[in-house]
């Protein structure tokens, strides 16, 4: 794991740089994932079909790390930090998501994954309590903060 001060969206210039979007397990009445704040909101604005795609995956496979292609040629990873959108970030869920992302990153060492500090924005957690959980991520995972 490497830390970098930058805007997540400015770093994504080719297909070997993958954004990791912090998410929650909430579904709207229409089945779409609730992506109303932070980097999840920004991703939903960038890829309008993303909430529908992620909502379907959460319903079918649960609130876990998902590799998603919101449009042709684009890939991103959903990294759950909350069980429901209104809750505080869940440390156990972040640990599980970290383990799953670590496996993906180890399989794809030539890909760089950009993850905003999980649970530290709308998740209302402090980086000092999250950092020990995510330190096990390999160096092709870059933790981004502004």
* Gross morphology: globular
Percent strand: 15-25%
What would the CATH topology be? Leucine Aminopeptidase, subunit E, domain 1
Structural class: alpha/beta
Number of strands: 6
Order of helices and strands: EEHHEEHEHE
List the uncertain runs: none
Structure commentary:
There is one protein chain. This protein has a single domain (2-145), classed as Leucine Aminopeptidase, subunit E, domain 1, CATH 3.40.220.10. The longest helix is centred in the C-terminal third of the chain and has 17 residues, at 91-107. A hairpin with a 7-residue loop joins strand 3 and strand 4 (76-82). It contains four helices and six strands, in the order ββααββαβαβ. The relative contact order is 0.22. Strands 1-6-5-2-4-3 form a six-stranded mixed sheet, sandwiched between helices. The model has no long low-confidence stretch (mean pLDDT 94). The two termini are 17 Å apart. With 146 residues, the protein is of the alpha/beta class.
């Amino acid at each position: 794991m490497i830390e970098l001060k930058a805007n997540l969206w400015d770093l994504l210039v080719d297909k070997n740089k993958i954004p990791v979007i912090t998410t929650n397990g909430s579904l709207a009445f229409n089945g779409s994932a609730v992506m109303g704040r932070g980097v999840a909101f920004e991703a939903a604005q960038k890829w309008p079909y993303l909430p529908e795609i992620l909502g379907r995956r959460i319903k079918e496979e649960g609130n876990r790390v998902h590799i998603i292609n919101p449009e042709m040629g684009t890939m991103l990873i959903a990294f759950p930090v909350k069980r429901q959108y209104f809750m505080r970030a869940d440390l156990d869920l972040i640990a599980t998501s970290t383990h799953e992302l670590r496996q993906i990153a180890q399989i794809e060492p030539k890909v760089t994954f950009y993850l905003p500090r999980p649970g530290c924005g709308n998740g209302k957690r402090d980086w000092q309590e999250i950092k020990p959980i995510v330190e096990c991520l390999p160096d092709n995972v870059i933790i981004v903060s502004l």
